[in-house]
């Protein structure tokens, strides 16, 4: 599938789609979206890039093994869960929030970080599976 | 006391990092661990002999009634001193015996775990923690028996020993649970108070059988004795420590420990006497047919264990005294003989008793140790063994009507034990030294000092029995529930019947030793009976079990993904379908349905076409694409019914799935073999049934009224409690956050699974 049109387009689509996925991730708390969908969109972005440019190029672009994102994501989600216990002595997974909303992003709280963890895990999982299958098939 | 038990475990853990330092010259330092523990337990002697019982309780799993309660009484003290004392000598011995061995640190690690577990067994007051330590001894012994894991025989023996003693451990657990149920406590000392309750219980027989099962497997009683000779594949220090002096005595310990609460009934005593008697005579006769020093000692150990079980079965005060004395006697001389055997093996490279002779000329101190141990083993005065033998005869003679028969059996066993002891302790050192052994030389002092210490101890205690009389024997017998007058252990009782019997034993034993010559021919002769031996029976049961599970596995796990999927779906259909048929009213409220719009009808049409195309197309890629169409149509439906979150997720998932399918199918061979007509009809029926089931299920869920309460709760509280307006997302990241966390963890595991499965195959291919 090495068409010049797709290859050219994918170079522009990749950052756009990634931005879009982050947008979906951030708006999740108020509007349709969230970490899971965001993560899926981000992985689709990379898969599209891999289709157009070959897996090797995509891998060089990412620089690290996507599987690395899984433990990182789990850690982020876990820390987001533990943070209330550490900061305010509240039970595990209680939502805590910064008092003032941040520009562009809006209210920031532990739930957002939890969602970021989900986002990273989903990217890690789907890319690991797809890349592994592509390589071995 | 907890620290004392845990020391062994901590020591082993430290070896993981510090192992490389202990392998060299520092190996001897590891012997400080058992030595320290020995001294620690020794200081309790004064308290114990004055009748005190030391208890310590630590909470462990209080909700289940499992506590770490430890009791140090007379019985425990004998065992702890044996475990740590002989442990010290064995640790020191190993430093030279396995000098420079690649895995010496591992060996010490296993030994440390074993020692700690064994201390746990004899000190636990809680029967559940006793069970856990009991299993730990089995597991550590598995590693020790299989230490030479490159030999097939070693591995086989290790598995055999683990399965036999492991089954025993499970029986112990079952017995413990029943006991705990009846008495309402898991503390052994508290169970003692409800002795009558246990004896009157209808489960008494089962309890006794279960406890016996545990004790007999561990202590190698007939017909479970066969794992012990196999366990001799282990390095000699292991045989010395585990399979003669300590672990196999755990079963004896269990019987002693439960004698006060379960014993003194017809069932208890008769069974123990019978099993013990069969074991001791059977194993003693077997010693005649062995030529391997370790084999001889293994069978004589089984015979000695038989004697102990037999004595506990007699149930009299005299018998308990004899048992406690004999435990010490046996530990001292048997450990010596094993250590001596180890030295012989180490220096000459053979354990074949028919080839060994004259070694006294090169290994004089070892010969002295062997000689002294053989004397004690034979019960020749003034050894400790003489006292032990006298006490045994005294106990059997005074046992009612069958006393004469039991004495006769004890004499036969002792005669043959004498023969075995002489064969192992004296035979290799007497006679002419063959040329091939002239180069043998004394090993390092760490190897010959330990057996010498033990052997001299065996004689010293014989001359001065008062050393152990009040400090060890008296409290142990008291702990077995026999209070009474003070025990007097003496070397010389005057001329009486027992002395005569002793003389007969020694005389006949010596006669056999001088006249009977062990030979390979005899050993082969008895091998013919192996087919009906309990070992072969158990092995064939094990083999049959393996074959059976292979067949079942072959039937269920046939490796075809399509079968797995159909089985899973079929199971779900049957289970859910049955429940639905039983409990459903099939009332569908048609009024609650919204009206169909043109868009929906069109989407449904697209879906139907997609499905039909998937089923009937002859191209793989087309089928996958059609499936993708169906998925996209579903996400459209989600959009119509205002579930944008679901629609988005479905859309992305669908895209990824199609990509995955294409990736896999793209590489598949071009030729196309579709499933035949029959299989397709079968799959079709299953799919239709499954689809209908889900439909019915969905309709039923709609009919359930309480669902709306949950919806309302989330709708009302999403913003109030979680500051979010998107209820779905709030549920995912906040209300049910832990669920989500588990889910992403599962996803990760799945990805690792896919990765390792495929990568593993790749590396194999590369290797070819």
From TrEMBL, chain A:
Transmembrane segments: 12-30, 36-55, 67-87, 107-133
Membrane topology qualifier: Multi-pass membrane protein
Record's keyword terms, sorted: Cell membrane, Membrane, Transmembrane, Transmembrane helix
Stretches assigned to the Na+/H+ antiporter MnhB subunit-related protein domain: 5-127
Pfam families for the chain: MnhB
Primary localization class, coarse: membrane
GO cellular component: plasma membrane
Cellular compartment(s): Cell membrane
Annotated NCBIfam families: PRK12509.1 (NF009163)
Family: Belongs to the CPA3 antiporters (TC 2.A.63) subunit B family.
Protein name per Swiss-Prot or TrEMBL: Na(+)/H(+) antiporter subunit B
Organism: Planktosalinus lacus
Automatic annotation (TrEMBL), chain B:
Record domain NADH:quinone oxidoreductase/Mrp antiporter transmembrane: where: 124-406
InterPro entries named among the record's database cross-references: CPA3_Na-H_Antiporter_A, MrpA_C/MbhD, MrpA_C/MbhE, ND/Mrp_TM, Proton_antipo_N
Keyword Iron: no
Record keywords: Antiport, Cell membrane, Ion transport, Membrane, Transmembrane, Transmembrane helix, Transport
Gene Ontology BP term (one): monoatomic ion transport
GO cellular component: plasma membrane
Compartments it resides in: Cell membrane; Membrane
Domain (NADH-Ubiquinone oxidoreductase (complex I) chain 5 N-terminal): residue spans on this chain: 63-108
UniProt topology in membrane: Multi-pass membrane protein
MrpA C-terminal/MbhD domain: residues covered: 605-670
Example GO molecular function: antiporter activity
Keyword Cell membrane: yes
Segments passing through the bilayer: 74-95, 107-124, 159-182, 202-226, 268-289, 296-314, 320-341, 362-384, 404-424, 445-468, 495-516, 560-581, 596-616, 621-641, 647-665, 685-703, 740-758
Source species, domain of life: Bacteria
Chief place where the protein resides: membrane
Residues covered by the MrpA C-terminal/MbhE domain: 680-759
NCBIfam families, A to Z: PRK12647.1
Protein name: Na(+)/H(+) antiporter subunit A
Lineage: Bacteria, Pseudomonadati, Bacteroidota, Flavobacteriia, Flavobacteriales
Gene giving rise to this polypeptide: mrpA
């Amino acid at each position: 599938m090495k068409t010049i049109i797709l290859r050219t387009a994918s170079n522009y689509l990749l950052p756009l789609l990634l931005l879009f996925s982050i947008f979906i991730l951030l708006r999740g708390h108020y509007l349709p979206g969230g970490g899971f969908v965001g993560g899926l969109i981000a992985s689709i972005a990379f898969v599209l890039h891999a289709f157009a440019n070959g897996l090797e190029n995509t891998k060089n672009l990412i620089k690290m093994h996507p599987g690395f994102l899984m433990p990182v994501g789990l850690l982020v989600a876990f820390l987001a869960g533990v943070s209330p216990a550490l900061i305010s002595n509240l039970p595990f997974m209680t939502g805590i929030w910064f008092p003032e909303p941040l520009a562009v992003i809006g209210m920031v709280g532990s739930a957002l970080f939890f969602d970021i963890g989900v986002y990273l895990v989903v990217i890690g999982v789907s890319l690991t599976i797809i890349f592994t299958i592509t390589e071995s098939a | 006391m907890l620290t004392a038990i845990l020391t062994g475990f901590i020591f082993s853990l430290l070896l993981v990092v510090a192992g490389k330092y202990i392998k060299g010259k520092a190996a001897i330092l590891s012997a400080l661990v058992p030595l320290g523990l020995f001294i620690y337990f020794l200081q309790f002697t004064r308290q114990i002999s004055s009748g005190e019982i030391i208890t310590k309780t630590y909470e462990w799993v209080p909700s289940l009634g499992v506590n770490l309660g430890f009791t140090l009484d007379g019985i425990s003290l004998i065992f702890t001193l044996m475990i740590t004392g002989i442990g010290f000598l064995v640790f020191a011995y190993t430093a030279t015996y396995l000098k420079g061995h690649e895995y010496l640190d591992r060996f010490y690690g296993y030994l440390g775990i074993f020692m700690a577990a064994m201390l746990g067994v004899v000190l636990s007051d809680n029967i559940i923690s006793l069970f856990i330590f009991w299993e730990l001894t089995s597991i550590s012994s598995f590693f020790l028996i299989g230490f030479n894991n490159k030999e097939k025989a070693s591995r086989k023996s290790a598995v055999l020993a683990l399965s036999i003693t492991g089954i025993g451990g499970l029986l112990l657990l079952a017995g413990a649970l029943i006991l705990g149920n009846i008495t309402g406590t898991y503390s052994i000392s508290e169970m003692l108070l409800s002795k009558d309750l246990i004896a009157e219980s209808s489960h008494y027989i089962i309890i006794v059988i279960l406890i016996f099962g545990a004790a007999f497997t561990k202590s190698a009683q007939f017909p479970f004795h066969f794992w012990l000779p196999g366990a001799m594949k282990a390095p000699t220090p292991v045989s010395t420590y585990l399979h003669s002096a300590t672990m196999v005595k755990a079963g004896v310990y269990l019987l002693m420990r439960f004698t006060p609460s379960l014993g003194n009934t017809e069932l208890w005593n008769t069974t123990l006497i019978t099993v013990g008697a069969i074991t001791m005579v059977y194993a003693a006769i077997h010693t005649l047919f062995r030529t391997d020093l370790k084999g001889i000692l293994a069978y004589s150990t089984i015979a000695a264990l038989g004697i102990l079980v037999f004595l506990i079965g007699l149930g009299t005060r005299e018998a308990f005294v004899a048992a406690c004395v004999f435990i010490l006697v046996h530990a001292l001389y048997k450990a010596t003989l094993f250590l001596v055997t180890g030295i012989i093996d180490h220096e000459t490279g053979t354990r074949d008793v028919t080839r060994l002779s004259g070694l006294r000329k090169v290994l004089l101190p070892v010969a002295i140790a062997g000689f002294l141990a053989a004397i004690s083993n034979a019960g020749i005065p003034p050894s400790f063994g003489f006292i032990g033998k006298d006490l045994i005869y005294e106990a059997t003679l005074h046992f009612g009507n069958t006393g004469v028969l039991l004495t006769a059996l004890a004499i036969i066993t002792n005669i043959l034990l004498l023969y075995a002891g002489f064969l192992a302790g004296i035979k290799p050192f007497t006679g002419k030294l063959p040329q091939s052994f002239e180069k043998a030389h004394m090993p390092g002092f760490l190897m010959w000092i330990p057996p010498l210490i033990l052997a001299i101890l065996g004689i010293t205690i014989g001359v001065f029995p008062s050393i152990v009389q009040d400090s060890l024997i008296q409290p142990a017998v008291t702990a077995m529930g026999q209070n009474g007058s003070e025990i007097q252990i003496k070397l010389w009782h005057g001329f009486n019947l027992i002395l005569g019997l002793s003389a007969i034993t020694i005389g006949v034993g010596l006669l056999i030793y001088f006249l009977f010559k062990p030979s390979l021919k005899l050993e082969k002769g008895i091998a013919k009976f192996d087919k009906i031996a309990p070992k072969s029976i158990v092995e064939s049961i094990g083999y049959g079990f393996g074959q059976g599970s292979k067949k079942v596995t072959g039937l269920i796990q046939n490796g075809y993904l399509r079968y797995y999927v159909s089985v899973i779906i079929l199971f779900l259909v049957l289970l859910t379908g049955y429940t639905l048929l039983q409990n459903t009213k099939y009332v569908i409220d048609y009024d609650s349905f919204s009206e169909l719009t043109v868009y929906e009808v069109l989407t449904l049409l697209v879906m139907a076409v997609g499905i039909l195309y998937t089923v009937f197309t002859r191209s793989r890629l087309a089928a996958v694409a059609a499936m993708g169409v169906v998925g996209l149509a579903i996400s459209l439906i989600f959009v119509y019914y205002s579930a944008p979150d679901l629609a988005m997720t479905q859309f992305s998932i669908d895209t990824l799935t199609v990509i995955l399918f294409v990736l896999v199918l793209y590489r598949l061979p071009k030729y196309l073999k579709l499933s035949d007509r029959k299989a397709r009809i079968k799959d079709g029926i299953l799919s239709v049934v499954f689809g209908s089931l889900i439909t019915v299920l969905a309709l039923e869920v709609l009919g359930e009224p309480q669902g709306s309460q949950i919806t309302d709760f989330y709708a009302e509280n999403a913003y109030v409690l979680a500051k979010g307006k998107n209820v779905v997302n709030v549920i995912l990241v906040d209300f049910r956050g832990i669920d989500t966390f588990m889910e992403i963890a599962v996803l990760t595991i799945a990805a690792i699974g896919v990765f390792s499965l495929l990568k593993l195959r790749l590396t194999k291919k590369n290797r070819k």
